[in-house]
TrEMBL record, chain A:
Entry's EC annotation: 1.2.7.3
Ranges for domain Pyruvate/ketoisovalerate oxidoreductase catalytic: 19-184
First-tier enzyme category under EC: oxidoreductase
Keyword match Oxidoreductase: yes
Stored PANTHER family: 2-OXOGLUTARATE OXIDOREDUCTASE SUBUNIT KORA, PYRUVATE-FLAVODOXIN OXIDOREDUCTASE-RELATED
Domain Pyruvate flavodoxin/ferredoxin oxidoreductase pyrimidine binding: start-end pairs: 218-385
Keywords: Oxidoreductase, Thiamine pyrophosphate
CDD domains in alphabetical order: TPP_PYR_PFOR_IOR-alpha_like
Pfam families assigned to the protein according to its UniProt record, in alphabetical order: POR, POR_N, Transketolase_C
Biological process according to GO: response to oxidative stress
NCBIfam families: OAFO_sf
Organism: Thiocapsa marina 5811
TM region positions: none
Identification of the protein by name: 2-oxoacid:acceptor oxidoreductase, alpha subunit
From TrEMBL, chain B:
Enzyme's top EC category: oxidoreductase
Name recorded for this polypeptide: Pyruvate ferredoxin/flavodoxin oxidoreductase, beta subunit
UniProtKB keywords: Oxidoreductase, Pyruvate
The enzyme's E.C. designation: 1.2.7.3
SUPFAM superfamilies (alphabetical): Thiamin diphosphate-binding fold (THDP-binding)
One term of GO molecular function: thiamine pyrophosphate binding
CDD domains: TPP_OGFOR
Gene Ontology biological process terms from the UniProt entry: cellular respiration; small molecule metabolic process
Cofactor section: [4Fe-4S] cluster
A Pfam family assignment: TPP_enzyme_C
Domain Thiamine pyrophosphate enzyme TPP-binding, chain residue ranges per copy: 56-204
Annotated organism of origin: Thiocapsa marina 5811
Amino acid sequence: MTERSTLDGGAALAITGSGGSGAVTAGLILLAAVGRAGYYGLLGRSAGPQIRGGESAAMLRFGPRPIECMGDRFDLLVGLDWENVARFADELPLDRNSLILTDAQAGPIPEILVRSGAQVRSLPWKALADGQTEGRVNMVALGMVGAMLGLPPDALEAGARATLGGKGGRVLAHSLECIRSGYAAADAQSSSVPSSALAPAVARWNISGNEAAGLGGVRGGVRFVAAYPITPASEVLEWLAPRLELLGGSLLQAEDELASINMIIGSSFGGVPSLTATSGPGLSLMVEGLGLAVASETPVVVVNVQRGGPSTGIPTKSEQSDLNIALYGLHGDAPHLVLAALGIRDCIDTVAWAVGLAEHLQTVAIVLSDQILGQSRAIVDPPGDRAFGAGETPHLQRLIARDADPDHRRYRPTPDGVSPMALPGLAGGMYTGEGLEHGPGGAPSSRAIDHAEQLDKRLRKLTGFDYGPGWAEIRGEGDHVLLTWGSAAGPVFEAAERLRDSGTPTRAIALRLLAPLQREALLEAIGSAGSILVVEQNQTAQCFAYLHSQQALPAHARSYARPGPLPLRPGEIMRALTESAEREET
Amino acid sequence: MDVAVITPTLRAKDYKSEVAPVWCPGCGHFAVLSAVTKALAHLKLAKERVAMISGIGCSSRLPAYVDAYGFHGIHGRALPLASGLKAARPDLTVIVAGGDGDGFSIGGNHFLHACRRNMDLTYIVMDNEVYGMTKGQASPTTQPDWAKSKLTPHGTGMRPFLPTAIALAAGASFIARGFAGDPNGLTKLLVEAIEHPGFAFLQVLSPCQTFRPEQKEWKHLVHPADTAPTDDPVEAARFIQADDGMALGLFYVRRLPVWQPQNQPTATPADLEREFVL
């Protein structure tokens, strides 16, 4: 049950420091550098609640195969300084094989880190930095760590250019000098990682989950966004705002989330595929509007980048605790789509698919991402052109009424439940979008027959649709099943692989489409597995309870659910499966 | 404003839909509906280029009664829905209609920001100082001592919301008041509001026969505004603060920058993706 980083080459390291120490900048450069050296990588960050500055940690894991989650431990902890770092101690698992690199001048290492038994080396970063013009400790340390990791100097320099390019020539030049100085001073004997990665055949991407969600939106055809800033979703909007302009679209910063959801209902009614992004508190405010979109059959997509809840909760930390509101938040019988991105790269495909599905089915799609996906960056293989048939393929486009049909009825029941939608400008297509229950023509109606007919139409169009293979990602075979959804897929995939490698055949099933649940396909994928463990990052086992309510789990399935903010790690999932399977046997 | 010219034979009644209004006999909103259709006919607007947007309440039923595109949304959110539509479809004439509760209470925040965003929208608020659809509760414009609602048996005890003053303070570029009992004057104001490039706020005194029968007296209380429309916000503020709430006419109109994205595509998503490539 060894970790992959030590199995196949690569490493996991954390860089910590107080506000202004540049820990995160060093992490960004290192990620860009490992990418250029031919590795995959994943960079997470942890920050305090301060508006500006404050202590922060950059956590980087890299290796020759795609990195989908943080590992169980860190090989290296690079302590630029130790102010308030104890706050992150539980996010920085170290052991006796870990190495803490610091400069003795940065002060004493916090006791909680020393207790891990990690070895400590003091390096003369401050002295080296003082020898440079405008010398920076973080850049000297970066150069030295880069050398110890066996990264080629060009990769480090290219990473620095890519990351600091916008800061002006002088800052970049001084930083490069510091990196070179640290690199030259490194003791080659201490190199802990072989430099064996091969250059990839296709250029890889460096992308964050929030950028990926924005890209998925525009790939799916989104050209209008209205939104209100909120942590940890704002980067989706910041990425989209200038780029929508280039695409001929626009982003409107709304006065609140009540406005943003209704604005995108308006723009979508006008015929423009539309999206908003938010987090838990914003989703709570949008729920009434989502019901309107369901009732009026107006396609909209909400990307909900989850954070710790309830209420204001933990805005800067991850949790998968908004599944219940996404599934059940709407009043009335309001069928809609709920999807979850399974990784940073998957944010592209899942959001693009959600846009296509919402457009085609004329309904609401809620896409659940979370802080750990949204605000982490990764080196990934470039995505394919199409996400499960989304995008410009005809069957995932909106069915638009084209001709002036004097008998056009907006909500006329059809065999598949989807009716042609007239867009303003089409003569003869006039109708009033309605949140009131209505008859086929759209006129308000409280008649039982109309209610039954329209409820059935709105449900049938979702349940009768063939979603294809995108509903889940399934890896491996085995008598044990790890079943999960959303961002927990990363650690679950790794746990399953390590279990298989160590002689415990385990299948991983990660749900991308949560509603409507593809129950038959899921039961088939579970098969006759002897043990089933449903893994998720929330207190009350929301997905486990949902699957049971849909009779989609065998009776012997068990739950492993715990809240954030600490990330799920593969090792704990492996232990949970082993313990759960042992309980089954006794 | 983009005005699509259609055959001039279209008359006001051609803009009425076949849906029968739910309003009580004698309701002021009938006159507003009539003025809307007259204004559309006067401006020769193609039906399919007009979108009537509303929230919830008696007056918010209006879109279904107009033969145009429309959206009857949720309580208080007509302005955001209309703003999103106009942002995405600048070619449409977008008219928002609602009541005093929808616009000034549950939707009050959107009113402020729609005024300052100054999109090319027309916002008609049919003000009868009462919630009619929920059977007669006090609204933001109700006088503090009106004690006919079981919900506020001693009155609200709060000074009424001053729609025109708030609109001015929030940055609206067109502020007017009409009266349901003055159909010609109302139609004229509506035409001006629709033609105004920017956010045009039109408060319409629209009596509620059922819950505020005393509003029958309004026809004796209304009077023309005693000054011409100004483009000076200080002068407008002075007038509005001295107003008894019964002056009719266009009070303030000013050319202000209109918020409207008009971007032409210069890139494709594939172009954007290059930034991620190592």
